[in-house]
Amino acid sequence: MASNKNLLLLPGDGIGPEVMHEVRRLIDWMDRRRHVSFNLGEDYVGGAAIDATGVPITDAVVEKARAADAVLFGSVGGPQWDSHGFDKRPELAILTLRRELGLFANLRPAIVLDPLVGASTLKPEVVKGLDIMIVREATGGIYFGEPRGIETLPDGQQRGFNTESYSTHEIERVARVAFDLAAKRQGRVCSVEKANVMESGLLWRQVVTALAAREYPNIALTHMYADNCAMQLVRNPRQFDVIVTGNLFGDLLSDLASMLTGSLGMLPSATLGAVDAGGRRHALYEPIHGSAPDIAGKGIANPLAQILSFAMLLRYSFDMDEDATMIERACTSVLASGLRTTDVMAPGCAKVGTHVMGEAVIRELDKQAA
Ligand code: IPM
Ligand code: MG
After folding, report:
1. CATH second-level architecture of 1-104+273-370?
2. Is the whole-model pTM more than 0.90?
3. Which residue blocks in the chain are alpha helix, DSSP H?
4. What are the extents of the domains in the chain?
5. What spacing in Å lies between the alpha carbon of 368 and ligand 2's midpoint?
């Protein structure tokens, strides 16, 4: 059946291809059982692309991503590409896609599912029921600011420098995403910067405050310095609903928040662009975990973050809420039944590999669809 849903799969390196394989099986299942089909493309990114083409991502792949309705990304990087130089590092694949497709809003949920409450290093009473959403700006700030570089000083020393900068427009558009999400959740947004030290943070706070007053009177907006936010996330994470922050602080705080759940292997993410005149938006979905070279090729990686990233893709890019919820429920049921990959293994549970976990999700979906 011809499909109007164009999906580009970019598995990447390490465990990326292994966990992506489980999503492929899920896509086959949807075709068979839900009569939903996708036009699938697949290509190289990261180290795999360096090996095949000499660069972490080719222009042709960027164009394929631009043409697709959604991109499902795996993970990139590994020790074998560490020596290729800063301009050829595998990570440039994801940074290039964010920049070229204008994917400015990175949504990183940190959710503690009941069956996994014991997987956190924090006490169950601190994290039980946790459900926070970090909205990280992803195309600006110090990641992309100019000037940047390493220069040699007159005395022969070197100086490395980067620039943190945010414009009104950049701040407003990511804050809107956070406010809109909060409106469908608990209606609370905490905006995070270092307005006590950085001008870019001061402007951030002013712009977010003005936007909330102008357009979002029903949102409860608070502000927090980034260092305090890190501390509060560990002290009492459930005080947060939606957090909105810049690129670098978002990178740090989202790693921190993901570990509150104790299961990095479980968390999906979405990175969204602006909605265009035709109602279309570029979007990329990826698990929060990296390429995990230490366990790659062993068939033991947890495929659930990649599967849940696909569920997010259905929800945000295709408005397929019902299917997304079905997949999320299937993942929770499988965990509740006691199956665990190594990363979330607990006493009394059955340890399974990537493939068996993927299979169990599909069997659970079969049950739900019956
Ligand atoms: C992330 C990653 C990336 C980032 C790397 C791979 C460039 O850490 O998505 O959080 O720093 O943004
Ligand atoms: Mg990161």
Report:
1. 3-Layer(aba) Sandwich (3.40)
2. yes
3. 16-29, 47-53, 59-67, 92-100, 124-127, 168-183, 199-215, 226-235, 247-260, 304-318, 321-336, 354-369
4. 1-104+273-370, 109-263
5. 35
